[in-house]
Amino acid sequence: MREMREYFNLMEYTEEFINKIIDYRMHMDKELNRYLSYEEIAEREKCSAGDVKKILTATAIVWTH
User: Fold this and answer.
1) Which of these, 64, 65, 61, 54, lies nearest to 17 by C-alpha position?
2) Residue 27 has what DSSP assignment?
3) What's CA 30's distance to the chain center, in Å?
4) d(CA 52, CA 32)
5) CA angle, 41 as apex, 7 and 36 as ends, to 5°?
6) Nearest to residue 40, comparing CAs of 59, 25, 26?
7) Rounded mean pLDDT of the chain?
8) Which of 13, 14, 11, 28 is nearest to 63 (CA)?
9) pTM to 2 decimals?
10) In 3D, which of 36, 31, 35, 62 has the Cα closest to residue 49?
11) How far apart are the C-alpha atoms of 7 and 40, rounded to whole Å?
12) Positive or negative: CA dihedral 29, 33, 39, 40
């Protein structure tokens, strides 16, 4: 079975990182009671908002269940 990073052509990221970013879209932030923005996710994960957007755009089929 292919890894998600291969399937979605996200080879520059680890499988763990991709799953972590997807998890932000699958679950609301409990303190804020809303989904976090690209910028908020990027700040928490110490990456760029562009990285977050790229991952979430490429994997939308996974987290829009």
Assistant:
1) 54
2) S
3) 17
4) 19
5) 105
6) 25
7) 92
8) 28
9) 0.88
10) 36
11) 26
12) negative
| In contact, 44 and 36? CB cutoff 8 Å | yes
18-42 confidence digits (pLDDT tens): 999 999 999 999 999 999 999 999 9
17 close to 9: Cβ distance less than 8 angstroms: no
Q: Is the sign of the CA dihedral 56, 60, 64, 65 positive or negative?
A: negative
Tokens of 32: 């804020």
Query: Would you say how long the chain is, in residues?
Result: 65
Q: Which residues, in sequence order, are CB contacts of 20 under 8 Å at separation 6+?
A: 45
